Amino acid sequence: MIKEAIATGATVEEAKEAACKELGVETFDDRIDFEIIEMQSKKVFGLFGGRPAKVKVTLKQEVSQIAEDFIKNIIRNMDLNDITVSTTVEDNVITIDIEGDDVGFIIGRRGETLDALQYLACLAVNRIDNSYKRVVINTGDYREKREKTLESLGRRLAIKAAKTGRKSSLEPMNPYERRIIHTAVQKVNGATSWSEGENMNRHVVIGPDGKSKEYGRGGRGGRRSGYGRRGSKPKQSAPAPNPDRKPLNEGGEVGLYGRIDK
Length: 262
Prior knowledge:
Elements: E1 2-9, H1 12-23, E2 32-38, E3 53-60, H2 63-77, E4 83-90, E5 93-100, H3 103-107, H4 112-126, E6 134-138, H5 142-164, E7 168-172, H6 175-185, E8 191-196, E9 203-208
Parallel strand pairs: 5-6
Antiparallel strand pairs: 1-3, 2-3, 4-5, 7-9, 8-9
Helix pairs in contact: 2-4, 5-6
């Protein structure tokens, strides 16, 4: 994002100082470009004509600063107090950490508000130019805890599916969280996972892997043929697992929501 200010002064230097003051920066800031629009001229005989100098100052902001300012503005409009925002940049990843007493309002139900803020910040940053920047918003270690919770949930339901032959449907999740579940399930022999539903209702289903040798050994899911009582119809087999038991790519390698194009 580019900010600019045009100011006048008795001299070029005074005009520069006035424009920089308007932008809230110093005249020696290396993010600034100066352009002299008009040079000052003296009055003829000290009475006629003459004009002040006019200068345009352009300030180029860092993309990370744009993301941080965007989040701060939203938090300010949410009337949340005692909130601090810090930003770090590594490669093409902008990480914004939010701390304070009211972070619960920013996280929201199961992280929905935090995810929405991250999505909007990514939109705000990547509409600037053609280079893609990933934005990650976290508060404390919420995302790390959430990831461990999802991994544990996926593994537990996968073991249950392998033992009982029954499937379980999870609540709707974003692509990133669905991928965490898929990855955890693919580490359990005898279970597989797939996604169902559309848009906001898309969710993960965990069930037995009908092609796995582990499925059908013991438990209520121990009938190799898939039949129940005599005369009943065979069970419908779950979708085949991915080749080589690789996790389904729900979220790609760029994190929550993936790349956002203009």
